[in-house]
Amino acid sequence: MQKFRKTNKYKNKNSGFVGFLKWEEQTILNIQKLLKSWFPKTQWKPINIGHLVEILIIGLWAFWVGRAYLNFGPNVIPGGREFGSAIQSHHIWTTFKACGWCAVWNGSINGGYPAFVDVYGSMLHPFVILSTFLFGVVNGAKFTIIISLWFAGIAQWWIAKELKVHRIARVWSSGLAVVGGHLAGRMEQGNFGLVLSTAMASLIFGGILSIANGKGKKASILLGIVIASTLLAGQGYLQVGMIIIFPAILILILDSNLRFKNEWKYFLVSLIIGGLLSAVFLIPFAHYFPNFTKYLDHEFAVAQPLKYIPLNYVIDSFDYYNSDVLNKYPFPALYTLFIGWIPVMCAVYGLAKGKKISKSVKWFFVTCIAIILLFSSGDALKLLTNIWEGAAGIRHPSIIAGLTIPLILGLSAMGLDNILDLDWPKFELRFSKDNILNGKSGQTIWLITLPIIFSLYQGYQFTTIWINTYVENPVVARVIEELKTDTLEWVQTPYGEHIYVEPAVGMGLKISPGIIPWQWENRYLPVSYLEASHAGQPKGTTGILKKVDDVNIYIRPDQEYAAVITETLHTPCQAQGKGGHLTVKCDSEHAGRLVIKENLVTGWKGWMDGKEVAIYGDQWISVEAPSGFHVYSFRYRPWDVPLGLAISGIGIIFCVFFWYSPSPKIDIFFNRKSSGLSEIKEVKGKTK
Fold it and tell me: In CA terms, which of 202, 408, 454, 680 is 20 to 30 Å from 498?
């Protein structure tokens, strides 16, 4: 067990506060002794009990803040209208449990698409996979939101630790990160992916500082892991935000003569590790990226002007965020950044008076904040669109501003640490009793607890506005039940109502048009066979088939999922299946072309009566269909997913090998003379 080293951190200026620190240190020593007495034969590896206690405290705070999500009732849904569509892609793991490899094709929306290429969803993140298997899609997402709050706190703790501030400042800043508006505010729209990706991206800053502080190869492995975690967390906005600040790392790796320090090697290895571990997503994404498109906004109309964004750090008014005041839209989820005046003032003080960190680290913080704000305002993106038009697809850049919170709170921790290190005056109270003069003295430093607690309370109050749940309307399940068909026809839930999306996908419906922020390029959506609507008869329907409360179910009888067709004839077929496994049974009196309304991409293979057949078609899966009864099978077998999985596996093996390799440095990958092979050759040469 590692011994806790007593420090003279506060120079004995404030004896009352030093007394508290001594009590704290003694408590940790007692915990260590207790563990030794419980497990006397255990060979403990060096650990810092104090750090574990701090992380546990942050976790308890996160679970308390997000406790509304611990209600795992089957119909209890997190607030926010987009929650259902934000987690729809998580159902690839329920599909995986049903049919294994078929899950690599998501056939639940808009004609289907390769499941691993969805940049909007978070389905490939380890937290999502594990929580979905343990608790199901909805409850797993609720649990993952709480874990995300915890990890946002851990990310802040890591930053503060690398800044070498005391644990009081570490825990305080971490607690503020848990209740920061950049997390809870995103749940105003129920945007699960933004909460997860913001938390994961925040971890990158701690990894960067760890390498800059000379932590070596293990720091580079940890940074690589959190980079991969961020890439797999979904949404894309936070990933763009991290990419744009990476050039600021030059401030940390260039010396005064503009020559590279040795740390550049560790950053490079981190990027390689991040790419390897996230290859399960990157390879399929690179394969299909040219085939996807989304709405472009060259004016970035939703972005708030740069001069107003900093005000969001200190405004906690619900009415303000639901208005168009200060040139923003009344969509709170895009703009919430609240942390309060106290941490902002501490950040300014920490930047001005912080002496424990180098100027290069300060410049790194300031540069990152400036870059993020420039991009989140849309100003930098407007210039970028002149070079790359695709930048106009970053339609909600205000979300990126959330990445400034970990940086500001890092400076706040440094500011509080400096405040605690001041020479605080004592106070003395004198009073007379029975003609005897008595007095009481104390330390004014304890007054600092008031703003510390108040700042956490402010953040907590702001967070509770957005973290809430509601009970799903039973009409939703009834409408979805009525939209079920005997085969796999495409159907449409009430358009624009996100609450229907996740349960519909969970019940195996194929929705078109569904709710997703991107589309296949140069392809049209399958027309729905059944359509649920609140208002009027949809175009192309023949009439009301069923009615559920105020929702009417309409039918288009000529929009079957699969049919044998000729120029004049049309024979519907029966289709069954899930994901990328489809079975179609046709009994046609005429020969023709079997058309299945599933998007045709590289990787689909087909069989008729057990014999492989050629698949063709401009958009839909099509094969030649002779007359008579035949059974057709179709399987999606892409090459990109196995390749991505294999590369990610190599990345895991590399991390394990590199972590436990005897060499404490990374130079073996960059300097041939220091490699084991070169050393062997040198020994052989000396022997000769």
Answer: 202
Q: Is the pLDDT of residue 677 over 60?
A: no
- The residues with which 574 forms a beta bridge, in sequence order, are 585
Let me know if 431 is exposed, middle or buried by CB neighbors in 10 A (0-12, 13-18, 19+): exposed
Boundaries of CATH 2.60.40 in the chain?
562-636
CATH of 562-636, one of 2.40.160, 2.40.128, 2.60.40, 3.30.1050: 2.60.40
Give the 3-state DSSP-derived string for 425-491, with helices as H, strands as E and coil as C. Answer: CEEEEEEEECCEEEEEEEEHHHHHHHHHHHHHHHHHHHHHHHCCEEECCHHHHHHHHHCCCCCCCEE
Q: What is the pTM of this model?
A: 0.90
CA 67 to chain centre: 20
Count of CB atoms within 10 A of residue 28's CB? 17
Answer with the residue of higher pLDDT: 229 or 517.
Answer: 229
Instruction: Kindly report the backbone phi and psi dihedral angles of residue 342, in degrees, each rounded to the nearest multiple of 5, phi listed first.
Output: -60, -50
Average pLDDT on 362-390 reads 93
Least confident range of 255-264, 390-399, 428-437: 428-437
Q: Residue 278 is encoded by which pair of tokens?
A: 């996230």
Q: How far apart are CA 2 and CA 40, in angstroms?
A: 15
Beta bridge partners of 554: 531, 544
Tell me which residue of 607, 469, 679, 601 sits closest to 105, measured CA to CA. Answer: 601
